[in-house]
């Protein structure tokens, strides 16, 4: 059971999602007025679903406003399918996106995958040259300085680092990290890796190599 916040300006969609998630025994809060989101106790939620195209304050603006204050997964609900829009949303710190119209079974599966990822136990530390992973706290450090990765960025780094030297396709990384297969959704991996590289490069680390036409590998 998880506490989930759903934000969408369409009452029919809010009702549909709420009823579906109640079947999984989740506690669901719905908000139709996007301007009220930032006044909510967001720390109480285990996952947040945000529609992108809303009057008043769109999902991108909300994510930008709240990402630094919450560390739970943020998933966009979006009718925007252009890669540039999806890349922009993930660049704001969202963990994933679900394209409208969506199947309710697929929605439940994606949410379940993110919640399982959140609950996995971590107990060890992984050292790779100047990079070390606090596996229990899901944190990455370079020379004792914490790198400000989102949860999804961290999970991608850990997966590649645990399997260093092996090459994985975008689809393979998506399925391994998020626990749900979807070829179109692997676009998210491209943007996450772009953001990871930018953050690691500030500390002089070049850890992820692109193998053109195949995928990515951790090379340290």
Key terms for this structure?
7 helices; four-stranded antiparallel β-sheet; Rossmann fold; 220 residues; 37% helix; globular; 21% strand; 2 domains; 11 strands; alpha/beta; Arc Repressor Mutant, subunit A
Instruction: Indicate the CATH topology of the largest domain.
Output: Rossmann fold
Assembly status: single chain
Would you count the extended β strands for me?
Answer: 11
Global structural class: alpha/beta
Strand order of the largest sheet: 2-1-3-4-5
CATH architecture of the largest domain: 3-Layer(aba) Sandwich
Distance between the termini: 39 Å
Rounded to an integer in angstroms, the radius of gyration calculated over CA atoms is 17 Å
Q: What would the principal axes of the Cα set say about the shape?
A: globular
The helix fraction, in percent, is 25-40%
**Number of discrete helical segments:** 7
Please name the fourth-level CATH homologous superfamily of the largest domain.
Answer: Response regulator
Number of domains: 2
Taken in chain order, the helices and strands follow as EHEEHEHEHEEEEHHHEE
Task: Output the CATH class name of the largest domain.
Answer: Alpha Beta
Main sheet: strands, sense, barrel: 5 strands, parallel
SS strand fraction? 15-25%
């Amino acid at each position: 059971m998880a506490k989930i916040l759903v934000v969408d300006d369409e009452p029919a969609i809010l009702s549909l999602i709420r009823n579906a998630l109640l079947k999984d025994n989740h506690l669901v809060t719905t908000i139709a007025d996007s301007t009220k989101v930032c006044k909510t106790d967001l720390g109480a939620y285990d996952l947040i679903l945000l529609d992108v195209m809303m009057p008043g304050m769109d999902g991108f603006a909300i994510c930008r406003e709240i990402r630094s204050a919450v560390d739970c997964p943020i998933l966009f609900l979006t009718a925007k399918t252009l890669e540039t829009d999806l890349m922009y949303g993930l660049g704001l710190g969202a963990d994933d996106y679900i394209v409208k119209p969506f199947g309710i079974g697929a929605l439940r599966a994606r949410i379940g995958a993110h919640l399982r990822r959140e609950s996995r136990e971590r107990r060890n530390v992984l050292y790779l040259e100047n990079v070390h992973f606090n596996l229990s706290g899901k944190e990455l450090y370079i020379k004792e300085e914490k790198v400000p990765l989102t949860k999804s960025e961290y999970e991608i780094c850990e997966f590649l680092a645990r399997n260093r030297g092996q090459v994985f396709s975008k689809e393979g990384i998506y399925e391994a990290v998020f626990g749900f297969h979807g070829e179109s959704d692997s676009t998210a991996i491209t943007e996450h890796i772009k953001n990871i590289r930018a953050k690691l490069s500030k500390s002089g680390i070049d850890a992820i190599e692109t193998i053109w036409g195949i995928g990515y590998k951790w090379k340290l």
